[in-house]
Fold:
Amino acid sequence: QVQLVESGGGLVQAGGSLRLSCVVSGQPLSKYAVGWYRQAPGKLREFVAAISWTGGNLYYSDSVKGRFTISRHNDQNTVFLQMNSLQSEDTAVYYCGAGSNKSAWYPRGNYEQWGRGTQVTVSS
Structure:
């Protein structure tokens, strides 16, 4: 069974940067499309970014477009989320999900497996 572990979160000042990692184990990353979602306190989980199996298709929410970049290295079984120009509104727990179903991953976000999340806190 595939497992996902996020890391790279932390406390950063507004305007700063962080790079999140999502490491996949148990199955080759190449079998999955991957998405990043986030959930702030008192809010629903929301879509952030998604990347297709070979990285040829990238999707971003309007709130992060131009500031965040999603990428993948299948040989390292890792997906990255580079976050620049962070704002206090980006404060949330960030989760990565992996899905092998070509009709379910984006925009539906029906991923087969999720990580436990990593906390990102942006101070203003």
